[in-house]
Amino acid sequence: MEDQSSYGMSVNVEEVVDKFLQLFDSIRLVAPKDEYPIAGRRFLTSMVKSFVETNQPIGLVLPAFPAKSPNVVKKVLGPLPDRGEELAFGVLEGFCKNVESFYSYGAKVVIFSDGRVFSDLLAITSEVVGAYHQECKRMVADAGYTRIHFDTLENHLAKDCASGPNLDQATLIHKLLEAFGTIDLDAHLESDINLLKLQRSIKCFLRLDLEPSKDVLLSEFEGASQNRLQQLFKQKCGEVSKSMILRNMAFSKLVEEAYPDMIRISIHAHTNAGPKFGICLIPGQDLCNTPHTPWHNVIVETSCGQTHIMRRERVDLFKFEVYEHPVYNRPWGFKEKSLINKPIHQTGVEDMEKLVISEAGAPKLLNACDIRLLGSLPIVVKPLHPCGIVIQCVDLPSLTPLDIPSDTLRRLAMQFGVVLLRGFQEVESPGDKLVETAGRIGEIVYWTNFGAVLDVKEVPGTVGSVMSSQALPFHWDGSFKFHNSQLQEITCADTPGFVLFQCVKPPAVGDIGGETLLTDTRRILRSSINAEKLAMLDLASLEAEYYSPASGYFGGRWIQHKFVSPHPITGEPTLRYLEPWPESKSAKQWTIMRAAREADTPVVAEASQLVQELIYNEELFCYKHSWMANDFLFLDNHAVLHARTSFTHGSERHIRRIHFN
After folding, report:
1. pLDDT surpasses 50 at 300
2. Is residue 341, in this structure, part of any structural domain at all?
3. 137 in any annotated domain
4. Which intervals of the chain form a coiled coil (predicted)?
5. 164 and 310, same domain (yes or no)
6. 490 pLDDT band (50/70/90 cuts)?
């Protein structure tokens, strides 16, 4: 059975399901006695298949995001969401967005907030729960996330009540237990070892959550010894944990009734046999260990770009300090003391907003938080002509590329195609500084021949033209990179998402050439210039094949590409074009092109000629970059084609290049 995607391509149902399961493994928790390989995978396969066969977004429901722990001394920063929730929402939105790369209907997740299920047991008021919930919704909206939705207990239990959604806590819980809570809890705890483990786990964390209200809980035992009070407190934690389990089981039944057809995900480490599957909300956590949640912990970020989640009391305050969010104006997390940002520069915010608006016809990828965060840095942002932006460090180099959040940096590259960072310094690292930088922004792509980084400079005697002083044709990196070694004569390429260049040494004064040419092909396809001619050629239906001799890095076989392909993340149309390059221009690395269908030969030749004219047009589309020492240049490799002019033989021009996803 096949699904017709939004790009007109037939997608095999089994293939979509398999890719979803592979993607799900990236966030799925592995339980100590994991039953996912035995039963869970089969269960999940069936559920995903039902969505795909009916051309529906794959739906997931997550009971989570209740409220912050009331212990603001030992566990959290305050009662409102912070960096932890921000990261968690990014994981959920990113997961759903990644589904769209292989299934056009994508995925969505409903966060069913369970705050009022437990809040009174933890001495958290309904007002505090409501404020937390509203701020979560605000953060998701501000980030521009469209795949996350919210639901609450009141939407289901207050429907027929005169007071509407404003049910008091006691009535709400009474209605929940009346409808779904007829359970013999003690019998369940005796027969279900996993439920017993969960109850014991809850009992442990309750000792910290109930600590702020300990005096009130034990007020009737005033005068008792400390040992006796400690015993009574443990007993109270046990009683509350049982109440939480009972309510959780009732709430679980409500979720099942409200969302019978959706995939149920959880922040708890279930056996993963189905119908519930444990997931990890914070990037970088060990999927085989007990997960940590944002509402019980704080986020700690190191200068090396690592993210840790832990209780507040465990943060090393000699090394880290609290920083505030520039938009929400509240404590956000912990950073190393050298990383705390400077105040907002409103002019910078306005400049960024103008630049985003100037991208007529382009989807708005940067959100309000991105723009405000950029405004908090000592930078000046200006457009490059005719495409891209330059971010210039003010005064002395005081920032590294990593002072711009990695998510924001990737969105900048996708928004503008080309992002030049000028006046920035390298990160501090005992290893390769460029690898450190790229590795914190995304997943590094490693190449068999040279690893992560290619040092692009003239090396006499090498096979390929990349390491010569010759010009290079327009191309995208990875056009000859394959998915695996089981290649057919004609196959598809495996394209890295982003390219990062760093200039170690620019051409010397007096040297000629060595510029990098960069064309954001989306601008060509959005432009009215030659739009009628491009439409007549119907580039979206044309396919070309390319061949370049093997050089040790790429080539050696025919590859096939459509002239126009959708951007895998934004969906925008992009040009996929490898400029034909005769041996007369490069005996070391020539490229030939032919129509994929012989009948299209004249049209493909005409299309190739027109595309070449457009991608070299420096007035309208092509940015010609002259290198300066320590320039960092980010490219969206799906949207931008790049080339190089020839340069003086013997020049010390030295550019380092790395790819990441």
Report:
1. yes
2. no
3. yes
4. none
5. yes
6. very low
In the chain, the number of structural domains is 2
Same domain, 193 and 317: yes
CB 601 within 8 A of CB 491: no
| Residue scoring higher pLDDT (194 or 546) | 546
Range of the domain at 524: 447-497+506-626+637-660
Strand partners, 636: 498
Q: Given 336, 359, 393, which residue is the final one in a domain?
A: 336
Higher pLDDT among residues 367 and 143, named by residue: 143
* Start-end of H helices in 379-499: 406-416, 433-441
In a domain, 576, yes or no: yes
- Dihedral sign of CA atoms 128, 133, 134, 138 in order: positive
**274 vs 21, 54, 58, 269, CA distance in Å?**
14, 22, 16, 12
What single string gives the DSSP state of each residue in 333-385?
A: EEEEGGGPPPPP-HHHHHHHHHHHHHSTTS-----HHHHHHHHTSSEEEEE-S
Residue 511: give its domain's CATH number: 3.60.130.10
Residue 349 lies in a domain: no
452 and 322 share one domain: no
Q: Residue 655's pLDDT is what?
A: 94
Q: Using alpha carbons, select from 201, 207, 197, 196 the residue that is nearest to residue 235.
A: 207
| 273 pLDDT more than 80 | yes
Question: In the chain, pLDDT over 90 holds for what percent of residues?
Answer: 41
What pLDDT is recorded for position 54?
93
pLDDT band for 488, please (50, 70, 90 cuts).
Answer: very low
Whole-prediction pTM = 0.59
Residue 487, pLDDT > 60, answer no
Euclidean distance between CA atoms 302 and 333, whole angstroms: 11
Q: Are residues 111 and 242 in the same domain?
A: yes
The whole-angstrom separation of Cα 378 and Cα 131 is 33
Distance CA 421, CA 393 (A): 8
Same domain, 14 and 136: yes
| Cβ atoms of residues 143 and 43 within 8 Å | no
Return d(Cα 412, Cα 392) in angstroms, integer.
Answer: 14
CA atoms in the 13 A half-sphere facing the CB of 634? 31
Q: Read out DSSP for 91-140?
A: HHHHHHHHHTTT-TT-EEEEEEE-HHHHGGGGT--HHHHHHHHHHHHHHH
Q: 381, 339 in Cβ contact below 8 A?
A: no
CB 517 within 8 A of CB 643: yes
Q: What letter would DSSP give residue 279?
A: B
What are the C-alpha distances in Å from 659 to residues 434, 496, 522, 635? 10, 6, 21, 10
Phi, psi angle pair for 308, to nearest 5°: -120, 150
Q: Which pLDDT value is given to residue 160?
A: 57
Q: What are the tokens at 13?
A: 């149902």
- Kindly state whether residues 332 and 451 are assigned to the same domain: no
Mean pLDDT of the chain: 85
Max CA pair span of the chain = 97
Digit-coded pLDDT (tens) for 124-135: 999 999 999 999
Residues with Cβ within 8 Å of 514's Cβ and at least 6 positions away in sequence, in order, are 506, 507, 627, 644, 645, 646, 647, 648, 651, 653
